[in-house]
Amino acid sequence: MYIRKNAPSAGALPLRPLCALLAGVLCAALLAGCASAKLSYNRDLVMAIAWQQNSGEYAALCHQAFNAGRVYVESLTPPSGEKRAVVFDIDETVLDNSPYAAWQVVTGSPWSDETWEAWCNAAQADAVPGALEFTRFLTSRGIDVFYVSNRPVSVLKTTADNLERLGFPNADPDHVFLQQTTSDKQPRLDKITAEGYAIVMLVGDNLDDFDSALRKENNAERLGWVTDKSGAFGASRIMLPNPVYGTFESAMASNYYGLTPGEKASARLEAIRPWRH
Fold it and tell me: Is 224 part of any domain?
């Protein structure tokens, strides 16, 4: 029997539609895999976000940190004409950005410059528990409050607006220093001291807020630094809890931010030490 070269045999799908169907299935599978990897990566954040947004323990730790700061400031010898400053990080130190992280989870969206800036520009962050009261305490003691953050300078106005809406002091360009060319905070701290201030305390949620040299160190080196400086914490260095993100995450693997969501999730899993029996 004669069969045309381009004709299907009985019961078979035409070749081109079949190829198109297979390609579509393959693309859908790949997209589903990517979406699943992103969702799995973001779901790692769920318990941390739930704890930050709902637990009394999180709030208690924040108040504990700021109470320690009060005790330290009250122990300082009154200055003789010296200008004093306390420098705060912003995110998860005075402003709570957990709704942005929660948005990542429920939408399966990765962190991006675009969506982060949109969140910052919305100026909807609430205050970290105890932060507002502590900054007001400092100003009542004649200590100037500065904010040094690695938010991009493009969101300076809306960040200051957010701080001002909540009642934080010194929410202005003379006291809010955001990232322009480098994430290294030391040049911005140097700018404060160049204005004649003695920085008596640093407040943050990331070790990088206390020493920019730690930005590129692995977690073992970061832990060693904490051991060496342990006496400063609860005094001239006040650490706030942040279970959602931080440099500790990127320190878990080399080129961490170049990894896919699935590879990042694997790196997180490999970093934990399970019970072996």
Answer: yes
Which is it for strands 83-88 and 144-152: parallel, antiparallel or unpaired? Answer: parallel
Q: Does the residue 264 lie in any domain?
A: no
Q: Chain centroid to CA 86: how far?
A: 21
Angle at the Cα of 24 (from 22 to 28), degrees rounded to 5?
120
> What CA–CA distance (Å, rounded) separates 153 from 178?
5
List, for residues 97-155, the tens digit of each pLDDT value. 999 999 999 999 989 999 999 999 999 999 999 999 999 999 999 999 999 999 999 99
How many separate domains does the chain show?
Answer: 1
Question: 73-85, pLDDT tens digit by residue?
Answer: 999 987 778 899 9
127 found inside a domain? yes
Residue 183: strand pairing partners = none
- Global pTM reads 0.85
Per-residue pLDDT, 41 = 65
Task: Give 225-266 pLDDT, tens digit per residue.
Answer: 999 999 999 999 999 999 999 999 999 998 998 998 889 889
The first and second tokens of residue 157, run together, are 């106005």
Domain that residue 140 falls in? 45-245
Res 43: pLDDT: 83
Identity of the residue numbered 241? P
Tell me which H or E stretch contains 46: helix 46-54
Backbone angles phi, psi at 91, to 5 degrees: -75, 125
Which CATH number covers residue 83?
3.40.50.1000
Domain assignment of residue 7, yes or no:
no
